[in-house]
């Protein structure tokens, strides 16, 4: 019996759609708890063509210091993100901009993402990928790649991007 089936049985789910949702929720919970080894086991059973799977695998590799593997997963996530119409366009009201700027000062890109998040907020997922790529290049000491990767997001004032560019251009 697969790990997925065992976990779904523990969760008391028999519906495959519910199983997938429960497993995805468990993966996010494990990642939030910094239990990347367990999340990794579950992620290896997920569809490799899903951007969320690749992004979350990248986070697992990043947490273990496997920056090259994380970068490979991030490239896979970018390839898996299909162009198209996504409903997650930012509203133009002032409150959204205030909380967005506050959130840009956090490391929210180091949190796991779901398929639904990818569907609703594709542009933010793209930013998350670039932010995590920047972190990987910085940890690897490849400052020219830090600058090349981070520069397109500089105007968005993400804390990690600003800090990485400062370190890379000293």
* Envelope shape: globular
Low-confidence parts: 4-17
Estimate the strand proportion.
under 5%
- Give helix and strand order, one letter per element, not per position: HHHHHHHHHH
Please tell me how large the radius of gyration is.
17 Å
Structural class comes to: mainly alpha
Distance from N terminus to C terminus (CA atoms, Å) equals: 54 Å
Task: Give the gist of this structure.
This is Tetratricopeptide repeat protein. Pfam families: TPR_2. This protein is 67% helix and 0% strand.
What can you see in these coordinates?
- There is one protein chain.
- The protein is mostly helical.
- The chain has one domain (47-168).
- Helices cover 67% and strands 0% of the residues.
- It contains ten helices and no strands.
- Helix 9 packs across helix 10 (159-168).
- It is globular, with a radius of gyration of 17 Å.
- The termini are far apart.
- 32% of the residues are buried.
């Amino acid at each position: 019996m697969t790990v997925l089936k065992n976990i779904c049985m523990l969760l008391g789910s028999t519906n495959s759609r519910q199983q997938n949702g429960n497993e995805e929720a468990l993966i996010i919970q494990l990642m939030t708890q910094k239990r990347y080894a367990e999340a990794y086991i579950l992620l290896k059973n997920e569809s490799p063509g899903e951007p969320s799977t690749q992004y979350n695998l990248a986070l697992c590799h990043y947490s273990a210091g496997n920056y090259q593997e994380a970068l490979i997963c991030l490239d896979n996530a970018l390839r898996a993100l299909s162009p198209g119409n996504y409903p997650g366009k930012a509203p133009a009201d002032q409150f959204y901009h205030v909380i967005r700027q506050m959130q840009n000062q956090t490391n929210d890109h180091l949190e796991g993402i779901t398929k639904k998040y990818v569907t609703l907020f594709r542009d933010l997922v793209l930013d998350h990928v670039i932010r995590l790529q920047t972190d990987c290049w910085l940890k690897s000491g490849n400052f020219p790649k830090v600058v090349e990767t981070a520069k397109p997001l500089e105007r968005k004032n993400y804390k990690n991007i600003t800090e990485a560019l400062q370190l890379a251009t000293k």
